[in-house]
Amino acid sequence: MNRAHVYSLQNTAIHRARAELEQNGVLDPGLGIEQIRDMAGELNRGLRSVSSLSLEQRRMLIDRLVEMGARVRNPHIYASDLVAESAARGEKGPRKIIVYPYPSEEQLRMVDALAGQIGWQTPDGYARFCHKLFRAPRPRNGRELTRLRLALQSMIDQERVREVGL
Question: Which structural domain range is residue 24 located in?
Answer without folding.
Answer: 3-88
